[in-house]
């Protein structure tokens, strides 16, 4: 089983570095070294900055890919209309366990990110800058960077800047979660969708974008749109930061020009020559097969054309030795545990989908597969934030990408391969780790005793669904850690004593030549070597 990714993994570059320039000289570019490497930066007016963003085709690098120039103009328009100074936010909340590109930039090139954000603040006339981070190392680095520039949250300063710490969770990086945290609330989606450009922090128009996006803006402002366009594809110029992990010899963050073959990036990280699948875009992304991975190049358009996605820049191959559905189930349980609990599709739908996938793997047959498809379809487009949609995308992509394995589990009771755990998930000490990990226990129904009272489905609807006849439609449901209490309560409340929790079978010893077991713990370095 793979260890969780360190905060700052190995960093590589294909071609000439832009965002990673100077990484071969020092571990962290402080302000003095940053200016020596990148040089000074002149401010731009709002219109010139918007034109620059449009000329370099700059899109958000946090996953959604929204055009930055369009967002900048929307914030400026709302600010002028309302007569309110806007707020600029750097979203460095990287809570996905497969992503480290923003963490690398926040740790090693914090001033490049600040350059882009301060350009935007100057152009918009903003007087408040907020930096949202999720990790100790990124908080330390960004606080030091603000101090090096003489920026703080003290009254009377022309620009007040502060760092906001959010939990290391998937939902914490969602734009509305960051705004809610910056406003003093919990780092959770508010349950309603509002445009940050209209009303964000303190009710003011808010320009919120990803850390890499601001770094790209700073590079474009320094070298100009023409020179920026000499790197990468004409339609998507510049470079991209990718996090490559999964079944690789060397997990890494790599800066590559757009247009570089994806197979070259996989080879660089030591991926299997013929992976049975490559997850693109992270845990809200899409699977592609080895043929598509061979043909695709690193670009939003190329990956979309083969059924993949660039998303947050996470690339995760898996080899032929592991069960892909078992790997997906590990991620599914984690995604279900990451719910903010504020809407039905997230609170009920995702655990039900994870339970459905478990039923498929455990011999539930065609009925289990059909139930999984139904619940996944029901989740799509109904959530209060993007987490249910992204998770549903992962479920649906898994079902369409591994049809042979799916048939083996549905028709033959399994594919015959163990789940080796190559997709990284948080390790011990992660604040929701206990909820994210399956307990190994199963909820089972004794059909000779069940009388169809339905109390179990009322207590734990995430695991037990009633059929048309009023009896539980599925049995042998896997119990995630965060649902153990309610599952035990359902067992105690069953009037017919038909419900039971089955304990996991004893762990088999690792096979000869298989992946070694991880030692417990394993702390992270604040600043790794990263070279």
Report on this model:
- By secondary structure, the protein is an alpha/beta fold.
- The protein has three domains: 17-226, 3-Layer(aba) Sandwich (Rossmann fold); 323-419, de novo design (two linked rop proteins) (Up-down Bundle), CATH 1.20.1440; 437-507, Alpha-Beta Plaits (2-Layer Sandwich).
- The protein contains 19 helices and 13 strands.
- It has a six-stranded mixed beta sheet, with helices on both faces. The protein has a four-stranded parallel beta sheet with strand order 4-3-2-5, with helices on both faces.
- Helix 2 packs antiparallel against helix 3 and helix 14 (365-379) packs antiparallel against helix 15.
- The chain is globular.
- The chain starts with 9 loop residues before the first strand and ends in a 29-residue tail after the last strand.
- Residues 431-438 and 507-531 have low confidence and may be disordered.
- This is Oxidoreductase.
């Amino acid at each position: 089983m793979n260890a969780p990714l360190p905060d700052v993994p190995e960093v590589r570059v294909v071609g000439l570095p832009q965002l990673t320039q100077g990484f071969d000289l020092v571990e962290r570019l402080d302000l003095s070294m940053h200016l020596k490497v990148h040089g000074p930066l002149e401010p731009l007016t709002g219109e010139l900055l918007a034109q620059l963003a449009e000329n370099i085709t700059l899109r958000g690098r946090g996953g959604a890919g929204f055009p930055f120039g369009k967002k900048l103009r929307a914030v400026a328009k709302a600010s002028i209309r309302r007569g309110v100074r806007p707020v600029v936010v750097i979203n460095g909340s990287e809570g996905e366990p497969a992503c480290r590109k923003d963490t690398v930039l926040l740790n090693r090139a914090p001033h490049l990110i600040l350059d882009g954000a301060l350009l935007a603040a100057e152009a918009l006339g903003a007087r408040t800058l907020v930096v949202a981070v999720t990790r100790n190392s990124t908080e330390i680095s960004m606080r030091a960077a603000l101090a090096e520039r003489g920026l703080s949250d003290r009254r009377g300063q022309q620009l007040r800047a502060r760092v906001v710490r959010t939990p290391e969770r998937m939902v914490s990086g969602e734009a509305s979660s960051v705004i809610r945290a910056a406003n003093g609330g919990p780092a959770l989606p508010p349950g309603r969708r509002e445009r940050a450009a209209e009303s964000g922090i303190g009710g003011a128009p808010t320009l919120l974008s990803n850390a890499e996006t601001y770094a790209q803006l700073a590079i474009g402002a320094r070298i100009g749109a023409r020179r920026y366009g000499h790197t990468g594809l004409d339609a998507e110029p510049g470079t991209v930061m990718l996090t490559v992990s999964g079944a690789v010899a060397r997990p890494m963050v790599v800066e590559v020009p757009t247009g570089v073959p994806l197979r070259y990036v996989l080879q660089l990280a030591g991926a299997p020559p013929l992976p049975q699948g490559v997850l693109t875009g992270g845990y809200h992304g899409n699977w592609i097969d080895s043929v598509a991975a061979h043909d695709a190049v690193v670009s939003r358009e190329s990956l979309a054309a083969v059924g993949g996605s660039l998303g947050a820049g996470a690339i995760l191959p898996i080899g032929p030795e592991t069960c892909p559905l078992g790997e997906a189930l590990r991620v599914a349980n984690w995604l279900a545990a990451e719910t903010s609990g504020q809407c039905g599709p997230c609170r009920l739908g995702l655990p039900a989908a994870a339970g459905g996938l478990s039923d498929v793997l455990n011999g539930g047959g065609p009925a289990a597969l059909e139930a999984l498809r139904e619940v996944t379809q029901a989740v799509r487009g109904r959530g209060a934030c993007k987490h249910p949609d992204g998770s549903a995308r992962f479920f649906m992509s898994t079902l369409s990408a591994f049809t042979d394995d799916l048939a083996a589990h549905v028709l033959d009771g399994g594919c015959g391969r163990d789940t080796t755990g190559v997709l990284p998930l948080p390790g011990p000490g992660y604040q929701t780790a206990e909820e994210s990990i399956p307990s190994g226990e199963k909820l089972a129904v004794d059909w000779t005793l069940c009388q169809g009272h339905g109390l179990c489905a009322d207590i734990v609807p995430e695991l037990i669904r009633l059929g048309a006849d009023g009896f539980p439609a599925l049995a042998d449901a896997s119990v995630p850690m965060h649902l153990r209490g309610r599952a035990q309560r359902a067992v105690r409340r069953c009037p017919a004593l038909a419900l039971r929790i089955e304990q996991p079978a004893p762990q088999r010893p690792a096979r000869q030549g298989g992946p070694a077991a991880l030692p417990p713990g394993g702390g992270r370095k604040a600043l790794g070597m990263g070279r």
